Amino acid sequence: MDTVGEEYLRRRESMLAKLEELADEHAKAVAGGGEKYVERHRKRGKLLARERIELLIDPDSPFLELSPLAAWGSEFPVGASVVTGIGVIEGVECVITANDPTVRGGSSNPWTLRKTLRAADIALKNRLPYVNLVESGGADLPTQKEIFIPGGRIFRDLTRLSAAGIPTIALVFGNSTAGGAYVPGMSDYVVMVRERAKVFLGGPPLVKMATGEESDDESLGGAEMHARTSGLADYLAEDEHDALRLGRSIVRSLRWRKLGNAPLAVREPRYPADELLGIIPEDLKVPFDPREVIARIVDASEFEEFKPLYGSSLVTGWARLHGYPIGILANARGVLFSEESQKATQFIQLANQSRTPLLFLQNTTGYMVGKDYEQGGIIKHGAMMINAVSNSTVPHLTVTMGASYGAGNYGMCGRAYDPRFLFTWPSAKSAVMGPAQLAGVLSIVGRAAAQARGQVYDEEGDAAMRAMVEAQIEAESLPFFLSGRLYDDGVIDPRDTRTVLGICLSAVNSAAEPAEGRFGVFRP
Predict the structure, then answer these.
(1) Is residue 19 part of a domain?
(2) Domain check: are 218 and 171 in the same one?
(3) Which residues contact 304 (CB under 8 A, 6 or more apart)?
(4) How far, in Å, CA of 226 to CA of 36, rounded?
(5) Bridge-based pairing state of the strands 324-331 and 314-321
(6) Residue 483 in domain
(7) CATH number of the domain that 129 lies in?
């Protein structure tokens, strides 16, 4: 790759501009409820959510934040009033969630719910201890209709984690009211901060209205009461720092052991990660060679390509990443033909036979259409590939680098196919099809309908419709929009791809190697 050529430098500048936009959106999430509420929180002598996490995890260890753009483009603040991610506590990888009380008192909106459920799902599938840093006002009442019924899954997930032998730990720093009271109530270990933690199903005003009983916060749900009288609190912390110390002590006492595979020796790539910035074209219709990406993320830049001369629009092969063996499927020219589909199916079966995790690098416009391809069996061959992806039991990781359109999103293990982790580059776009194609289809259908009715087609209206649809689909296919709806686990800087995938592969191997599964019927 020519890293000083005009084309490369133009692509690099385009990516850097997108990364500036990403940094601005991340800054909104970090800002929480804004300066006024952050300052009020500090005046109460409290730590911010991310400060609590930083003190909880091991010094100088990474924290992989998940879904930081949740709720982007909605009526709710970016980040959805909760921080989730994977951090190392006393040498143990844990899923950590932390309510952000500077955002509407840490109350849960519909996106908070989706983000929290996703964190619990990651903990369960990857066998990671689950640590909740609790300070929440419960449900955001104006949106209760979207939270109350599905929100019961939060408590179900806590009990399922415990039943699976995965420890759940709640560190309660402030209010944990109404449904929020069940988070410590259903956790294996509970720490409460003296004179700060308040855990009750109904606060003094509600109790007064419901029963006529007069009570105060402490006697109704204070930390000391729960430590001495109700028994809900297992540990009584003197302050927030003490609660975090106790949390670390609990994790240390777990004597947690990974059940998966240990990595082999790690070798850095021969090419710098910084060069990833200039690979993706501004126009996603322009193909690029995914081997250039692979060379900058895998160990020693070594890639053993499988079937290189067959189905060349899809690159498949074996590599190691941070010492972990992986199989890679990467789109080379976007379109998936029958040959690529059959090649992918065989490769996925081989990965399952050797129990090797799979990494999907997406840049696909979907499966090829047209009379010749339909007659050649593109439907059954595409179905064969999707069958293989659906029933593969080895861990899947997905990175969307460029386009992710149509059924290609499914065949390359999009969100609906349950990869363990899915991340997106700022260059990515995803939709049922490209904006121009979708608008064109609607135009053709409208034109045919008018002709069938014997009417003159409104060309001016057609042009306006196409422009409106193209703008809408373009906006809804952008990575911030999709990440805001939790269709990925985060939009990442391409230069961080190797590190992010390394953390994920390590997390995946906290669980035992999955049992071998069975594939559905492959139509010949």
Answers:
(1) no
(2) yes
(3) 317, 318, 319
(4) 32
(5) antiparallel
(6) yes
(7) 3.90.226.10
Encoded tokens for 429? 């776009």
Same domain, 291 and 219: no
**φ, ψ for residue 168, nearest 5 deg:** -120, 130
Question: How confident is the model over 415-446, as pLDDT tens digits?
Answer: 999 999 999 999 999 988 777 777 788 888 88
CA distance 129 to 127: 7
CA distances from 56 to 86, 92, 189, 190 (A): 12, 12, 15, 15
pTM, 2 dp: 0.93
CA distance 340 to 363: 14
| Tokens of residue 182, six digits | 């069940």
Name the token pair of 467: 């422009």
Helix (H, G, I), strand (E, B) or coil at 324: strand
d(CA 88, CA 383): 40
Handedness of CA 161, 164, 166, 170 (dihedral sign): positive
Angle at 523 between CA 517 and CA 524, to 5 degrees: 120
pLDDT tens across 169-197, in order? 999 999 888 777 889 999 999 999 999 99
Q: Which two tokens stand for residue 516?
A: 């071998």
Q: Inter-axis angle of helices 110-126 and 144-163, to 10 degrees? A: 10
